[in-house]
């Protein structure tokens, strides 16, 4: 095949140059908005503005960053938020997929409802949840009261606010992850279930010993996407809490925004960005390896 | 049936309850948006439409914010990004799928980095770059960081690779140039991937908030998400919940309608988007 391809090409075609030329438009924009900003943020994180002059401060910004209780809060919040949204979202998404995997009309409608929050902007979802979380007269408290349950100050209580935001995030994203599990379930051969049934496995055992092992690649893949979302999506903070009360809902990216736009502390903003980049790169290392394996598998085909 | 078979049915019942919970915010949105006398929160929480529906909330929302302009801006942003992306990803996708050149593997990984370093994380340095390019407070400034797309390039590369080499060879024999090849052989055959990419691209930029918030200052250049955020802040102060519900519907309606019409395509596109 390779030989034939080479033969079919006119000898004058400068293929090496053409390839690079075709990549050039993309590389210009990647350079401007992906590679260059990384270098810039690394440089910026080691410098500070003093009397209109930029001076090298070494790790000064990082020291200031880690000494800032608001940053510590954002870091811890982001960790709690990650665990508290990713685990329930994945469990729910898997449950949804298992319950709705057969393609009946009813199931298709139910899946569409679960997917709907994925389509709407996080800002729009937040506008809706503003009323849902309204104390006493809001949707949540109104119906909790009917059940005889005392509601909370969902967004105003520092002990509760982050959990309220997690609820919103789970509602928003579970339907997206469900899609991947549905696709993964379709890849499980019917014979595996037949064999398990013949062995007398009940539905729990089939889930434990057939379904879950098959879904493992999907599961870890979806976990990476979910973790990326946890770091990169903070729009709801702007509408619902602005990081408060007393930084109880501040997340890393929102903290970066605050430092840069509200406090004009670019050094600290850059240092905080570097911390988020390190987190993202650690995550991406795992998913890149997966992509590589996938590409290799294709190459072998 | 063996005893264990009862659990799936219980599970399905539990999922039905959860679906009802998932639908509740939308149900409230629909009911509240047409509820008359929507000022003040009293009675707003009821999901029962025990009234004659009114369009007053929509009229109020439409009048109190410049939604027509927000729509226009959002459409310009999504359309502009997509138009440039289709060019960049087709060219790069073809290069990675069919051409040999030095540094190909390295460059491929260099592209993939963008899947993780999404522009929004780099908002502070990107804002500076946009300002230096003279694009601060302009719609092209909102679009520029997205003109190259690793996800799109990857998708096109995959699609182009499935196209038989014989087609290219035959076209080359007929004296076709590479750009004629891409336009008349590769792109038409990769249409499903192009559509999938377009859906993901438009949806994500239609819904984007933080980056436009950084770049746009002029109220006349706000996209829908920024407009809705400002509008919500105003209406929240007035406790105009019905108006907020109506405004939210205005923002989400186009994508939700498109989803209702092309469900299958949306689902497949979002599955492909998992790559990012």
From TrEMBL, chain A:
Membrane protein topology class: Multi-pass membrane protein
InterPro entries attached to this UniProt entry: MetI-like, MetI-like_sf, UgpAE/MalFG_permease
Keyword field: Cell membrane, Membrane, Transmembrane, Transmembrane helix, Transport
GO BP terms in the entry: transmembrane transport
Cellular compartments annotated: Cell membrane
Cited PANTHER family: BLL4140 PROTEIN (PTHR43227)
Family of this protein: Belongs to the binding-protein-dependent transport system permease family.
Annotated protein name in UniProt: Sugar ABC transporter permease
UniProtKB/TrEMBL annotation, chain B:
Coiled-coil region: none
InterPro entries: MetI-like, MetI-like_sf
GO annotation terms (biological process): transmembrane transport
Membrane-traversing stretches: 12-31, 70-94, 106-127, 139-156, 240-262
Keyword terms, alphabetized: Cell membrane, Membrane, Transmembrane, Transmembrane helix, Transport
Pfam families: BPD_transp_1 (PF00528)
Superkingdom: Bacteria
Subcellular localization(s) per the UniProt record: Cell membrane
Signal peptide: none
Alphabetized PROSITE patterns for the sequence: ABC_TM1 (PS50928)
Membrane topology, record value: Multi-pass membrane protein
Boundaries of every ABC transmembrane type-1 domain copy: 71-262
Cellular compartments per GO CC: plasma membrane
Annotated family: Belongs to the binding-protein-dependent transport system permease family.
Protein name per its UniProtKB record: Carbohydrate ABC transporter permease
